[in-house]
Amino acid sequence: MVWEDSPSHVCRGGDKRALAFCCPPVKPCPVIYALEDAKLTPQEYIEIKEKFAEKTKLSQGEGTCFGSLVWCCKPSKPCPLRDMVMRRIGMSVDEYMELKKQLSEELVGKHESNTKESVTVLSETFNVSEEEAFKTLQQCDNDLKKAAKLLKMKNLEF
Protein backbone atom coordinates (compact mmCIF):
# COMPACT_ATOMS: atom_id res chain seq x y z
CA MET A 1 0.00 0.00 0.00
CA VAL A 2 1.26 3.45 -0.91
CA TRP A 3 0.16 5.27 2.26
CA GLU A 4 1.02 2.76 4.99
CA ASP A 5 -0.10 4.86 7.96
CA SER A 6 -3.13 6.46 6.34
CA PRO A 7 -5.56 7.53 9.03
CA SER A 8 -9.07 6.31 9.53
CA HIS A 9 -11.81 8.64 8.31
CA VAL A 10 -12.29 11.75 10.47
CA CYS A 11 -15.84 10.60 11.24
CA ARG A 12 -14.35 7.35 12.61
CA GLY A 13 -11.82 9.07 14.84
CA GLY A 14 -9.02 9.63 12.33
CA ASP A 15 -6.62 12.52 12.74
CA LYS A 16 -6.55 15.71 10.66
CA ARG A 17 -4.60 14.02 7.84
CA ALA A 18 -7.87 12.27 6.99
CA LEU A 19 -9.29 15.57 5.74
CA ALA A 20 -8.08 14.29 2.35
CA PHE A 21 -11.01 11.82 2.51
CA CYS A 22 -13.70 14.21 3.72
CA CYS A 23 -16.68 15.82 2.03
CA PRO A 24 -17.15 19.58 1.90
CA PRO A 25 -18.20 20.88 5.33
CA VAL A 26 -21.90 21.17 4.49
CA LYS A 27 -23.34 19.72 7.70
CA PRO A 28 -22.35 19.51 11.35
CA CYS A 29 -19.85 16.65 11.62
CA PRO A 30 -16.34 15.89 12.95
CA VAL A 31 -14.75 17.57 9.90
CA ILE A 32 -15.29 20.89 11.69
CA TYR A 33 -13.04 19.77 14.57
CA ALA A 34 -10.41 18.41 12.20
CA LEU A 35 -10.39 21.77 10.38
CA GLU A 36 -9.88 23.55 13.70
CA ASP A 37 -7.02 21.17 14.51
CA ALA A 38 -5.48 21.89 11.09
CA LYS A 39 -6.05 25.63 11.59
CA LEU A 40 -8.05 25.85 8.37
CA THR A 41 -11.31 27.65 7.72
CA PRO A 42 -13.94 25.73 5.79
CA GLN A 43 -13.36 28.07 2.83
CA GLU A 44 -9.57 27.50 2.87
CA TYR A 45 -10.17 23.76 3.02
CA ILE A 46 -12.47 23.86 -0.01
CA GLU A 47 -10.05 26.05 -1.97
CA ILE A 48 -7.04 23.82 -1.25
CA LYS A 49 -8.91 20.70 -2.30
CA GLU A 50 -10.31 22.32 -5.46
CA LYS A 51 -6.89 23.67 -6.52
CA PHE A 52 -5.30 20.27 -5.90
CA ALA A 53 -8.03 18.57 -7.92
CA GLU A 54 -7.47 20.90 -10.87
CA LYS A 55 -3.93 19.63 -11.33
CA THR A 56 -4.63 15.90 -10.80
CA LYS A 57 -6.99 13.12 -11.88
CA LEU A 58 -8.91 13.69 -8.63
CA SER A 59 -10.77 16.43 -10.51
CA GLN A 60 -12.71 13.72 -12.31
CA GLY A 61 -15.70 12.14 -10.71
CA GLU A 62 -18.89 12.91 -12.56
CA GLY A 63 -21.54 10.85 -10.84
CA THR A 64 -19.92 10.89 -7.40
CA CYS A 65 -21.61 12.60 -4.45
CA PHE A 66 -19.83 15.93 -4.95
CA GLY A 67 -18.75 15.54 -8.59
CA SER A 68 -15.03 15.00 -7.96
CA LEU A 69 -12.82 12.26 -6.54
CA VAL A 70 -11.14 14.91 -4.40
CA TRP A 71 -14.14 14.63 -2.03
CA CYS A 72 -14.26 10.83 -1.96
CA CYS A 73 -13.41 8.57 0.96
CA LYS A 74 -10.82 5.84 1.49
CA PRO A 75 -10.99 2.71 -0.65
CA SER A 76 -11.54 0.70 2.55
CA LYS A 77 -15.05 2.18 2.66
CA PRO A 78 -17.22 0.60 -0.05
CA CYS A 79 -18.45 3.10 -2.64
CA PRO A 80 -19.65 1.94 -6.05
CA LEU A 81 -19.76 5.52 -7.39
CA ARG A 82 -16.09 6.22 -6.59
CA ASP A 83 -15.02 2.79 -7.80
CA MET A 84 -16.92 3.18 -11.08
CA VAL A 85 -15.17 6.48 -11.80
CA MET A 86 -11.77 5.04 -10.90
CA ARG A 87 -12.34 2.12 -13.29
CA ARG A 88 -13.56 4.47 -16.04
CA ILE A 89 -10.45 6.68 -15.84
CA GLY A 90 -8.04 3.79 -15.27
CA MET A 91 -6.97 4.88 -11.78
CA SER A 92 -5.57 2.21 -9.47
CA VAL A 93 -6.10 2.19 -5.72
CA ASP A 94 -2.35 2.87 -5.30
CA GLU A 95 -2.53 5.95 -7.54
CA TYR A 96 -5.65 7.15 -5.70
CA MET A 97 -4.00 6.74 -2.31
CA GLU A 98 -0.77 8.44 -3.48
CA LEU A 99 -2.79 11.44 -4.64
CA LYS A 100 -4.77 11.49 -1.38
CA LYS A 101 -1.51 11.39 0.58
CA GLN A 102 -0.18 14.36 -1.43
CA LEU A 103 -3.48 16.16 -0.85
CA SER A 104 -3.24 15.50 2.87
CA GLU A 105 0.26 16.98 2.92
CA GLU A 106 -1.06 20.10 1.14
CA LEU A 107 -3.84 20.40 3.70
CA VAL A 108 -1.93 19.76 6.92
CA GLY A 109 1.75 19.34 6.04
CA LYS A 110 3.87 16.23 6.38
CA HIS A 111 3.07 14.19 9.42
CA GLU A 112 5.32 11.92 11.37
CA SER A 113 3.64 8.58 11.86
CA ASN A 114 1.89 8.23 15.18
CA THR A 115 1.78 4.45 14.77
CA LYS A 116 4.46 3.89 17.43
CA GLU A 117 2.51 5.96 19.95
CA SER A 118 -0.74 4.10 19.11
CA VAL A 119 0.98 0.71 19.46
CA THR A 120 2.38 1.68 22.87
CA VAL A 121 -1.02 2.88 24.09
CA LEU A 122 -2.78 -0.28 22.86
CA SER A 123 -0.08 -2.51 24.36
CA GLU A 124 -0.23 -0.85 27.77
CA THR A 125 -4.01 -0.49 27.89
CA PHE A 126 -4.81 -4.07 26.94
CA ASN A 127 -1.73 -5.73 28.42
CA VAL A 128 -0.57 -7.26 25.13
CA SER A 129 2.81 -7.29 23.44
CA GLU A 130 3.69 -4.39 21.17
CA GLU A 131 3.89 -6.90 18.33
CA GLU A 132 0.28 -7.99 18.91
CA ALA A 133 -0.84 -4.39 19.26
CA PHE A 134 0.91 -3.49 15.97
CA LYS A 135 -0.63 -6.45 14.11
CA THR A 136 -4.09 -5.58 15.44
CA LEU A 137 -3.71 -1.94 14.41
CA GLN A 138 -2.65 -2.99 10.89
CA GLN A 139 -5.51 -5.48 10.70
CA CYS A 140 -7.89 -2.61 11.54
CA ASP A 141 -6.54 -0.35 8.77
CA ASN A 142 -4.90 1.98 11.32
CA ASP A 143 -8.26 2.66 12.94
CA LEU A 144 -7.30 3.10 16.60
CA LYS A 145 -10.90 2.84 17.85
CA LYS A 146 -11.50 -0.36 15.91
CA ALA A 147 -8.20 -1.84 17.18
CA ALA A 148 -9.12 -0.96 20.77
CA LYS A 149 -12.53 -2.61 20.38
CA LEU A 150 -10.96 -5.74 18.91
CA LEU A 151 -8.40 -6.02 21.72
CA LYS A 152 -11.12 -5.39 24.29
CA MET A 153 -13.17 -8.24 22.79
CA LYS A 154 -10.11 -10.51 22.88
CA ASN A 155 -9.62 -9.66 26.58
CA LEU A 156 -13.25 -10.52 27.31
CA GLU A 157 -12.77 -13.96 25.77
CA PHE A 158 -10.27 -14.92 28.47
From TrEMBL:
Domain of life: Archaea
Protein name, entry field: Methanogenesis marker 9 domain-containing protein
Organism: Methanobacterium spitsbergense
